[in-house]
């Protein structure tokens, strides 16, 4: 059997989610433990609309690399492109908004100044005795900081974890 790359290409696999918790998994367990466990065991499939997730990944992939963005578009094109009406063959409105987000970030001097470093760095650590995983959008070890892109249709959820934390908004 081939060994899984739990922090690389297999990062989003069930095997990786069983070994390492993530903030998304934590949120799912807070919503409904039975559903989250059934999902991990392969007994339940999440059928919620994943448009918001795809929009976020669309923006992230753009800033990861041109190759990553093209791969993302190739894998998810059927979800992103309108198939009917006057917009047939064009990006759906949510992805047009994602394009506006990308343009806003590209034209933001401060963002571009700080978005320098390694992209999509997988990390692990113990939180409360539980192994967690995460991906850092942009890690700059030399300068001692990281950047995390958040796309949201509403206010950022500051109540995810009740642990002390620091936040820098530039």
Automatic annotation (TrEMBL):
The keyword Protein biosynthesis does not apply. GO terms for molecular function: ATP binding; helicase activity. Keywords: ATP-binding, Helicase, Hydrolase, Nucleotide-binding. Pfam families: DUF3799 (PF12684). Residues 22-154 form the Putative exodeoxyribonuclease 8 PDDEXK-like domain. Gene3D superfamilies: 3.90.320.10. This is Phage protein. It comes from Streptococcus agalactiae. The lineage of its organism: Bacteria, Bacillati, Bacillota, Bacilli, Lactobacillales.
